Amino acid sequence: MPMVRERPGVDKIAPYQAAKSLESIKREYGLSRVIKLAGNENRMGCSARVGEVLNELSSQFAFYPDPNCTILRERLSAFHHVESENLIFGNGSFELISLAAHGFLGEGEESVIPDPSFGWYRNVTLQMNGTPVMVPLKDFTIDTDRILETINERTKIIWICNPNNPTGTILAEDQLNNFINRVPKHVLIVLDEAYIDFTEEPYFNTIDLIKEHKNIILLRTFSKLYGLASFRIGYGIGDKELIERINRVRSPINVNFSAQKAAEVSLDDDAFKNSVLDNNRKGLNLYYTELEKLGFPYIRSNGNFLLIQTGKEPVENTFLQNGIIVRNAGEFGLDGWIRVSVGTYEENEKVIEVLKTIAESQTGRRMSDYETEI
After folding, report:
1. pTM above 0.70?
2. Euclidean distance between CA atoms 36 and 45, whole angstroms
3. Mean pLDDT value across residues 258-284
4. What is the pLDDT of residue 24?
5. Residue 21's pLDDT band (boundaries 50, 70, 90)?
6. Distance separating alpha carbons of residues 192 and 194, to the nearest angstrom
7. 41 contacts 341 by C-beta, under 8 angstroms
8. Which is it for strands 234-238 and 216-221: parallel, antiparallel or unpaired?
9. What pLDDT is recorded for position 22?
């Protein structure tokens, strides 16, 4: 029997490849515990209030959630000093990215994507039968001048992950402002700011950009700083008319009840947020210090992860044998590099111990002797 024909263009989309489960890795390597540092998740967990509130509200689980996220909308409106109409909510940043493409990108039109960056930008472009225009990074940073050169009458969306994943680099305020001012007003700029809370230095308030430009949407998430990745909740901030147009393609009930309540209580827990930021800062500084000793090049990060060059030979199996999952950055076109999520301080120390064994195998020298010499 003939198969149902897929829509033209679907064949260009690579199917999602799920990572091995923690249980399968434990069995394969004979491990009792595995530390997952491949997904940029929050290894500090989430606010203790999340579980408490959900237990208190369990009687409401049988009802449909608020389709407008009313309470969370009011909270974030006050938190960011924007109007409630400036906000849109999604089932994580994945859905918000998809909604932007579904609302603005047509067949044969182009979206400009820094390379490497978050892979979902390319997927949603192909879903819409659009054309991805890949622009290589310059010195591991988004090349805004090169992006401007690619813009033509077919350009509809520019995706800017800032800080960028997987490199952790961020655009300086003057560079970002200059870039935005030079982009034609009919082109949508998606500023994906999933990691904005982790910036190394004080950063300017990018939310002010939406008050000056009607073609910008900022994407934020509760997955990283707040540790709510499994709840799948994110939000966008933009001009009211822009948000209204994206809302037209949004599923009516796309954010579940538990996610809304978890996000609401997480906003209040400043102690937890500060502990996460403090742990991230200490973790990155530990890596910087030890990587300098080991001689492994790295890129200073404004995220909760770090890009490290470990050499030509893949090293993820060495980490797996030690019960640690890291990301082979060859998936991003960065052969010889790994991306490691910042874990707890003890987990970061375990990663460094593995890096020492890798350095010893590459140099033939005990790293303890090297440390003594310096």
Report:
1. yes
2. 13
3. 98
4. 84
5. confident
6. 6
7. yes
8. antiparallel
9. 83
Locate 216 and state its tokens. Answer: 């910008």
The CA-CA-CA angle for residues 332, 126, 186, to 5°, reads 100
Q: Reply yes or no on whether the pLDDT at 373 is more than 50.
A: no
Residue 276's nearest CA partner among 197, 181, 211 is 197
Token pair belonging to 98: 């998809």
Q: Which range, of 5-9, 88-92, 114-118, 306-310, averages the lowest pLDDT?
A: 5-9
Tokens read off for 251? 């599923």
Among residues 334, 298, 336, the alpha carbon closest in space to that of 316 is found at 336
Q: Identity (one letter) of the amino acid at 167?
A: T
Rounded Cα–Cα distance for residues 201 and 29 (Å): 40
Mean pLDDT value of segment 45-64: 97
Which residues, at least 6 apart from 136, have a Cβ–Cβ distance to it below 8 Å?
114, 115, 143, 146
Overall residue count recorded for the chain in this entry:
374
Distance between CA atoms of 81 and 84, rounded to whole angstroms? 9
For residue 34, what are the contacts with CB-CB under 8 A and spacing of at least 6?
22, 25, 26, 323, 324, 325
Q: Which two tokens stand for residue 328?
A: 């082979």
